[in-house]
Each structure stands twice: as structure tokens, then as C-alpha cells.
Amino acid sequence: MRYMDEALVTKRMSKRLAYNKLWRTIFFIATSFALITLAILLYRVVTQGAGYLNWEFLTNFASRFPAKAGIKAALIGSLWLMAVVAPVSIILGVGTAIYLEEYAKKNKINDFIRMNISNLAGVPSIVFGLLGLTIFVRTFGFGKSILAAGLTMSLLILPVIIVAAQEAIRAVPNDQREASYGMGATKWQTIIRVVLPAAIPGILTGSILALSRAIGETAPLVVIGIPVILQFLPTSVFSEFTALPMQIYDWAKRPQEEFQYVAAAGIIVLMTVLIIMNSIAVFIRNKFQKRY
Amino acid sequence: MAAPKDGATSVQDMIAQSQGKKGKKFTEKLMPILLFIAATLSVLTTIAIVFTLIFETFEFFQRVSITDFLFGTEWLPFSSKEPMFGILPLIAGTLKVTLIAIVVAVPLGIASAVYLSEYASDRIRRIVKPILEVLAGVPTIVYGFFALTFVTPLLQELIPSLKVFNALSPGIVVGIMILPMITSLSEDAMSSVPNSIREGALGLGSTKLEVAIKVVLPAALSGIIASVVLAVSRAIGETMIVSLAAGSTPKWDWAVNDSIQTMTAYIVQVATGDAGYGTTIYYSIYAVGFTLFIFTLVMNLLAHYISKRFREEY
Amino acid sequence: MVVLQDAQKTTATNPTVKPMIVTENATKKIVYDTRNLDLWYGEHHGLKDVNLEIYENEVTAIIGPSGCGKSTYLKTLNRMVELVPSVRTSGQIMYRERNILSKEYPVEELRTHVGMVFQKPNPFPKSIYDNIAYGPRIHGIRNKKVLDEIVEKSLRGAAIWDEVKDRLNQNAYGLSGGQQQRICIARCLAIEPDVILMDEPTSALDPISTLKVEELVQELKEQYSIVIVTHNMQQAARISNRTAFFLSGEVVEYDETDNIFQNPTDQRTEDYISGRFG
Fold first, then answer.
1. Can you list the domains of chain C with their CATH numbers?
2. Cα–Cα distance, A159 to B267 (Å, whole number)
3. Do B14 and C136 touch (CB under 8 A)?
């Protein structure tokens, strides 16, 4: 006695195979949607902005007239911002990661710190803006300076750097630590001479990606209230400044159509900076991948 | 220590000489403390956020009744006669955009994840995944610009009644923004389903589709749901796309073709406007920010709970 | 027999073997004297009342089936076992007449005298030179000339100088597995240890590399005291002076290697070395 009906199985088989093919195509189209969107987005930005992208655009200050508007103050301002964000966020982030991976015992306090970091990563950037406005701009009296914005951005990307650094440190095999301890090295010597050198490529990659997020982030800057039409360059971290995404935002929301092209030109500059940073990150990742 | 060596200069002697330096012991004690302080800074950040929001919101509730705020259906802060601070219209705006984004991103994201995890060759995966990373790295201000200058005009061709500022266009673009997140997190969840389970089903004569739908998707479900919840949290907190393309007219209705305002866009409007420090409007952004914070916190905790509670054991 | 064992329990595990060793080796110096060592991993009793003496300038092999505690014992000798959380010990291990299990004994100092070679070759992803110089450097030796000398001497000591002298600045990961393991031995020699602990140093190597490492061990014992854990009984028979057989955390038998392999006193030892289990 057989329960399987060969004829029925064969009959259904062609239908099942056809479904498989159909859905495979649907899944493929869904996947291409993201790629096509990215292509359209880049094409649009380039065609709109290319005409306005020239040497004057890079070297002029902002202006009420689209033809004279330039991105100099914003570009230099973004670099200043990074000069604050990079050291602050990397030192704090890597320090936290070393603590959590190498020193922290399993207890309530450390579990809480871990839990807290993962939740902090989910806090909207605009809320960090409110924090920066209240604490750094007003309470500490830093004003709408590079320092205030830089510290705000550092806290914003801190969880990203911590997680990346933790992964990089965790990827260093334990036998490396054992070899070092076995020779009478102390814990800190082992960390600084064996663990960190091995983890640095991963830490750098993660940090650059996090910094590239900070460079494109707008909302916290808007909330802090940094100006958009500046006719001078910052001279110290206490100077007022403007930044690339802030400048683009200002242009994009202006009613004159011409400013949209200026905004597109600004986006090309911003995206170029991001692509350079990402390429460096990918280069580091590929060059130093897995040696154990 | 009696070292049984014949060498004239013993390394152990040299080591013994350089031992006993105070610095080493001190560093050894100091570093964990410094690193612990660095680690507590993230906790301090959270505390600072919560306290900032609570204090300033408290100040706001001195001026506006909490019931008016929570249940009022009119948000007219700039009205010179009688300002109204009912947050429901802002929540409605946020939810409209979020819902549209989810409708766009969830099917596309899960379908892409199935394709990448179950069908795609290694070569295709190697091409698609970096592109998704690029897409995830595009600043939201760029997406906002894209929504305003491309998606809205395109949709207006299809839907003539669509206004320049509306919920539909930014909703779709927020969906595009969260798409890479859903795709890659869901793909991670599906890829971690062990191959032996797939082989079991394939060995019984299942097609790849049947394996994907009946075996892999159910096994990876908690991971997929967690990714969607996280994406919702992102969409709720998204600021620049809605600030540029959704308008600044808070409304308590369900229309998507007209100008709206989200919680985040309101905060931006006040921050870029000229409301002075200490005014009710100034404090209102903290009350709105607090509401936003609670929405996203609940979503994040939910995602955490789902992925932890329903973690599959293989 | 039972009565006798009870009477002597505090001084020795195996009364029939112990007095013999003492008389025979009255001239040999004891490096490690383990007394009533017990060790727990959480609830698991990993080592049970271990008593063992390790002699200067000898190769002491530790054999036994997987999970018998042989590696654990080895790692207790330089307190590497403490890297595992939830480890507790009781008893004493006297190293050159000082109890290393006491809290006052600085573990870094102990490990400066007691080098270790691991199961899998684990050079650092640095140049060969930096690998060897690592130990001296962390202990404060910075003089370039001195370091050069140490590096050459250690590499010669590990019989690998001729193979690598022209590429000291290349990454140690470019070498073969057997060469890497000898680099690790050289790295260990660079701090001129008193004792070298080897944890199955050839288990990841091919037969030819294994042979080289074994020859090296024979040479090294002229200057160093070596304790080697091995899975391979032939290896123990080939290279060691003395062998301890561990089973479920206990020392079943400890004697000169020839005795252990030719006329073991304990039935379990005989079963193990004749391949009936393990």
C-alpha cells in the first residue's frame, strides 16, 4: 500500500517549479530596486549639480545669489568638526571597548553598560541635538561652536565605534594573549603591545565609517543652531562655523529653483568626501584581513 | 634565582635590574580605572539625555496642561491669540510617514534578503552587499533632497492632487532609507539558519521557494521581526527627509497627499526659527523630543526583547 | 598495601615509586615540588591531590587521555590556568622553594622564569625579530645591540637561525607551521627561562617538523628543565626522562620513563600505554 501518488506528484511538480521561477524573479526585482534607486539618485544629483561645480564654488563663501554661492566655509567647517570628533570619539570608544572586552567581569554594572550602549545606538540623532543644545551650548557655555557640535557628534557616533572596536578586539585570538602572558607580560602590556596592534585595522575601518556618518549628519547641527551664511573661516574650536550638510539643507529649502542646483553641487562635494572615506575604510579592511 | 646558564651576561639578570620600576605597577592599576571611566561616559550620556528631556519637559508642563498636550488634536504653537499644544497631530504625521515607509521597505527588504540568502550566487552577493552599504551610508539630507526634487514631482505626474509638501513622498524615501537595514539584518538572520536544515528539506524534494518560505523564513522570523522593529524606530526618528519634503502643517487626519508635520520636523522648525530661549515654544521642543525618545526607546527595547526571547537554538 | 598508602598519604601518592626516585636522584635538584594540589573549575574537580616532583635539566612528560587534567596541571605551573574564570586551587606548588600559589608571588615574575610553548604555533603578527625581542622588551631591555644578540642567540638555540637569518624583518606568519613553532620556542628562550613548559607542542605539526622539535627538546634539556604534555606516547618514550600518567585528574603513576613503559605497576597505566583506551 502506497500513500504517495506518483501521478499527482508529477502533475504538481511542474506547477511548483514554475512558482519557484516566478518568485525567484520577483525577489530579484526587489533586490534590484535598491540598486536602481541608488543609480537614479546619483545620476540626478550629478546632472543637476555638475554645472555649478567649479573652482569658484569650492573657494567662495555662501551668498544670497546662487551664481556666487560657494561651499568654502562649510567644507573647512566640516574638517574642523572632524578634528574634534575623531580624537574624542575614537579615544572614548576604543577605551570603552577595551574595558568591556578585556577587563569587565560578568556582573550587573557591566551588563548595564552593554545594554545602555545598544540602546544609545538607537536614540534618534535629533535627540542628541537637544542634548548638545542644553548641555554643551548652554550649560557649559560653548555656544554654537565647533567644540559644542563636535562633542555632540562624538557622543552620537560613540556607540558605533564601541561596537566596531569590540568586534575587532574580540577577533584577536586568545592564544596571542596567552603567548604574551606566558612571557611574564602584564595585562596592560599585553593589551597595548599585542591586542591593540592586531585589532587596529578593524578599529580604523569601523571608526572611519562612523566618522563618515558624522560628516553627513544634519539634524544635531540644526538643533544646536549653527549658522549657514558665514563669511569667515573658523580660527579655533571655539569659533562659530557651518558644515557641509547644514549648507546643503539651507540651499535645498530655498524657494528659488537655482539654489537646488547649488544644493546638488554641494551634495556632490559631500558624497565625494564620503566615497573617499569609505574607500579608505574598505582598503584597510581588505589589506589587513585575517592573518591568523 | 639560580639560573643554570653559562652565558656571561644573563638576560634574567638584566630583567631583574629593570624590575621594580614603580611605573609599571602604577600603570597596571591606573589603566582599568581610566577605561572604566570611559565606559561609564556612555551611561552618563544616557542619563544626561533623560534628565535634559525630563527637566525641560517639566518646565513645559508648568505652562501647558499635560492632558492638553497628550490628547489635544490641535498643534498651533505659533498662534498669536491662543497657542495650542496638542501633540496628536504631530504623532499622526510621524505615523503616516512611518507607515508608508514600512509598506515600502518591509516587502522589498525581506524579498531582497530571501534573494541574497537563498538564491543569489556568491558573485552577486559580493556586488550587491557593498551597494547596500553605500545606500545605508547616504546622508539623510541627500535623501531629503531626492524626495523634494525627484520623487515628489514624479508622484505629482501620477497623482495630480498631490501637493508639493505631502506625507507620501517622504514616506517612500524614508522607506528607501531603512531598506538596507531591513535587508542586511534579515539576511543575517536567514544566513544563520544552518544549512543542514535546508538540506533536510531539499532532500525531500522541496523547491528552493518552499525551503525559503516554509523552512528558512519561520526559523529566522524573530530576527526578521527585530530588524523591522529597529527600522520602524529609525523611521520615527528620521528628521531631514521630512523636514525638507513633508511640510510644516500638523494635522489630525489620515490624508497623505497634503502637507503634514512630524515630531522631528517640528523640532527643526523651532530650532531654525527665532523662538527665544525660555519661551513656551522653546520648551515645547523638549516635550516633543521626550515623546519621540519614548517612542524610539520602546521600539528598541522591543527589538532587543524579541531577538533575545525568541532566539532560535539550532 | 592499603594501610601503607593511608599512612603515607600526606607525603606521597604512590609509596611504591616515590622512595625509589628519592634514593636514585639524591643528587638531582628539584625544580618544582607539587604538594597536595587540588583544582576546581567551578564545581568540576579538575585535579585531585596531585603530588609530583620535577627535576632540573630533565624532560618530564605528562601523558593521559583527553580531559585527564594534564594540560591543566601544566598551566598551573605558570598559573596560566588563572585566565579561566572560576578556577580555585588548594595545596602548594613549590618552585625553587617558594610557593607559587601564594597570593604574594607575582605571577609576572613567575612567568619570566617559566616559559611556555603552546599547542598551536602562536607567533605574533609581527616580524620575526620583534617576536623574539618581545619578551626582553616588555621586561625593559631596550638596547638595540643587546637585543640583536639576544635574538641571534635565541634563534640559534631553537635551531632556526640559519633558516631565518636573512629575513628577520619579515612577518613570522610567512613561515611554515614547524618553523613558526620553533620561532615560538626561540621567543620563549629569549628571556632565558629556567623551565620551559610545552603543551602538546607538536600536535599541529607534520611528522618531519615534529622530529625537528623533538631533537630540539633533547638539546634544550642540557640547559633547561622541560615539562612536556603530549598525546603521543611514543613521543614521551622517545624524549623524556620521566613520565607521569594522569587519569581523571589524578596521578596514577610517576616514574622514570623506561619503567613506565616497560613495567608499569598500575594496571590502568598498562592499559593506557598498550592502547586499550584513551
1. 2-273 (3.40.50.300)
2. 24
3. yes
- Decide if B100 is inside a domain: yes
Partner-chain contact B150 A40, CB within 8 Å: yes
- pTM of the full structure: 0.89
Distance CA(B103)–CA(A54), nearest Å, equals 41
Q: Which residue of C has its CA nearest to B10?
A: C192
**Overall number of domains in chain B:** 1
Q: Residue A1: inside a domain, yes or no? A: no
Give the separation between CA A146 and CA A242, rounded to whole angstroms: 9
Residue B54 within a domain: no
Neighbours of chain A (3+ CB pairs under 8 A): B, C
Q: List subunits contacting chain C, requiring 3 or more Cβ pairs under 8 Å.
A: A, B
Residues of B in contact with A40 (CB under 8 A): 150
ipTM confidence: 0.92
pLDDT tens for A56-87 read: 888 888 887 887 888 999 999 999 999 999 99
| Residue C101 Ramachandran class (φ > 0 left, ψ -120 to 50 alpha, else beta) | alpha
Smallest CA–CA distance from B5 into chain C, residue? C223
- Ramachandran region, residue C96 (left: φ > 0; alpha: ψ -120 to 50; beta: rest): left
Q: Do A181 and C80 touch (CB under 8 A)?
A: yes
Interface contact A179-C191, CB threshold 8 A: no
Residue B27 CA: distances (Å) to CA of A100, A101, A187, B31, B33: 18, 18, 10, 6, 10
Domain co-membership, A213 together with A76 = yes
**Identity of the residue in B45, B128, B264 whose CB atom sits nearest the CB atom of A124:** B264
Contacts of B146 by beta carbon, 8 Å cutoff, 6+ apart: A41, A44, A45, B173
Note whether residue B134 is domain-resident: yes
Cβ atoms of residues C35 and C200 within 8 Å: no
Whether B11 and C223 lie within 8 Å, measured CB to CB: no
**A182 and A272 housed in the same domain:** yes
Q: What is the mean pLDDT of each run of 10 residues along chain B (314 residues)?
A: 48 76 80 95 94 96 94 90 92 96 97 95 90 91 96 95 94 96 94 91 90 92 94 96 94 92 96 85 95 96 86 63
Is the domain of A126 the same as that of A233? yes
Say whether both A36 and A85 belong to one domain: no
Q: Does B46 touch chain C (CB under 8 A)?
A: no
CATH (domain of B105): 1.10.3720.10
Q: Which chain C residues are closer than 8 Å to A180 by Cβ? A: 124, 134, 138
The tens place of each residue's pLDDT in chain A, 292 residues long, gives 678 788 888 888 888 999 999 999 999 999 999 999 999 999 999 999 998 888 888 888 888 788 788 899 999 999 999 999 999 999 999 999 999 999 998 889 999 999 999 999 999 999 999 999 999 999 999 999 999 999 999 999 999 999 999 999 999 999 999 999 999 999 999 999 999 999 999 999 999 999 999 999 999 999 999 988 888 899 999 999 999 999 999 999 998 889 999 999 999 999 999 999 989 988 888 887 655 5
Q: How many CB atoms lie within 10 A of CB A236?
A: 9
Among C108, C110, C125, beta carbon nearest to A291: C125
Quote the cell numbers at residue C99. 610557593
The CATH number of the domain holding residue A166 is: 1.10.3720.10
Q: Do A96 and A46 belong together in one domain?
A: no
pLDDT, tens digit, 9 for 90 and up, residues C161-193: 999 999 999 999 999 999 999 999 999 999 999
Of all residues in chain C, the one with the smallest CA distance to B28 is C108
The predicted-structure confidence for C71-88, as pLDDT tens digits, reads as follows 999 999 999 998 888 899
Range of A83's domain?
56-287
- Compare CB distances from C192 to B2, B3, B18 and report the shortest one's residue: B3
Answer whether residue B258 is part of any domain.
yes
